[in-house]
Design a protein that fits this description.
Blueprint (H helix, E strand, L loop, with lengths): L1 E2 L2 E2 L4 E3 L8 H10 L4 E7 H6 L2 H7 L9 E6 L3 H13 L4 E6 L4 H4 L11 H14 L4 E8 L7 H11 L3 E8 L10 H10 L4 E4 L5 H11 L3 E4 L19 H22 L2 H15 L6 H9 L4 H24 L1
Bound molecules: flavin mononucleotide.
Length: 326
């Protein structure tokens, strides 16, 4: 797929996820095979106020990540224009506008999926942003506000007329948040209504499911969100064919690299939290994970957390070997 002049490699790519799709995790996903990655939502107000959290933890990316899409969140036209310019000046290859976040704290100030409600105002915002954004400009939408207001196609057409370069569709309503099943038919409808490339998203948990979504909807690219948490190797087409031992070694390498990136990226306090969360996710679905998680979240330092994780991780391998012997 091409978004403007930017080539997007491969079919599947990491979705933006607040608190998760930060520079370390995006780098890992990319190294595993994710195509273009998108940052988590970056609050326009945080950018303008230059808060440390926004600039250092959220908006920062590594040169190796490029091309990179940085996602902006906001509702005030001027702030979105200024914020977009700031992201552009920081080297963003693509600027994506979040029009899908369903969290009440966000929507009650007109941000995220609330932008799918007042289309007159949203058109003005998109036009103003389009004027200043010189790199490709994309939007990420839902199927609508609720069942009575399913307007993804209308929003996509308006955006295309304004000059938006690509659209991602997560076909749930704001009211559904993350419940129920995403309705891939909405992606098909958007694909057949606009000429710009469409990325499909929603409930994809493997590369073969991504292929199925592409075939079913005609979308050109697929975003994977929740299924990549604790499993960034989902983007590696070769992973499923590895033996148990090969998978274990591959995962160990990735986890160690991810932890190093986390340590370098964040302040000590945030790094420990990020480390604990990701290590806990990496252990997902494994034996005795509950007691491991209790011990992990009671640790107070990097070394303690890593010791708890390593003991557990090695025990998984031994457990498997024991099982084999018996
Ligand atoms: C914890 C979490 C945080 C999210 N944060 C964002 C975000 O910052 N920007 C955005 O556009 N979507 C965000 N999303 C939505 C995802 O990008 C994606 O649209 C959704 O999870 C559906 O895809 P999936 O079924 O592959 O998870 C978030 C989702 C989750 C679970």
């Amino acid at each position: 797929m091409k978004i403007g002049n930017i080539k997007v490699e491969g079919l599947a790519r990491l979705a933006p996820m607040a608190g998760i799709s930060n520079a370390p995790f995006r780098t890992i996903a990319k190294e595993c095979g994710s195509g273009l990655t998108t940052s988590e939502e970056i609050d326009a107000n945080g950018l303008i106020k230059r808060t440390k959290k926004t600039l250092d933890d959220i908006a920062k990316y590594y040169p190796e990540e490029r091309p990179i899409a940085l996602q902006i969140l906001g509702s005030d036209k001027e702030n979105l224009v200024i914020g977009s310019k700031m992201l552009q000046d920081s080297g963003a290859d693509i600027i994506d506008l979040n029009m899908g976040c369903p969290v009440p704290k966000i929507t009650k100030t007109g941000r995220g999926s609330a932008m799918m409600k007042d289309l007159k105002n949203t058109s003005k915002i998109l036009s103003a942003m389009r004027k200043v954004i010189k790199v490709p400009f994309t939007i990420k939408i839902r199927s609508g506000w609720d069942e009575k207001n399913l307007n993804a196609v209308e929003v996509a057409k308006i955006a295309e007329d304004i000059g938006i370069d690509a659209i991602t569709v997560h076909p749930r309503t704001r009211a559904q948040r993350f419940t129920g099943k995403s309705n891939w038919d909405v992606i098909s409808e958007v694909v057949s209504s606009v000429a710009v490339p469409v990325t499909g998203n929603g409930d994809v948990n493997s590369i073969s499911e991504a292929v199925r979504m592409k075939e079913y909807t005609g979308c050109e690219s697929v975003m994977i969100g929740r299924a990549a948490i604790g499993k960034p190797w989902i983007f590696d087409e070769k992973y499923e064919n590895l033996s148990y031992q090969e998978k274990y070694e591959y995962k160990t390498k990735i986890i160690n690299r991810h932890i190093e990136l986390i340590k370098n990226h964040f302040s000590e306090r945030i790094a420990l939290l990020q480390m604990q969360r990701h290590l806990s996710w990496y252990a997902g679905g494994q034996d005795r994970v509950r007691s491991f998680r209790v011990s992990l979240f009671s640790t107070k330092t990097f070394d303690e957390a890593m010791n708890v994780f390593n003991d557990y991780w090695i025990s998984l391998q031994n457990y498997k070997n024991l099982q084999k012997v018996v």
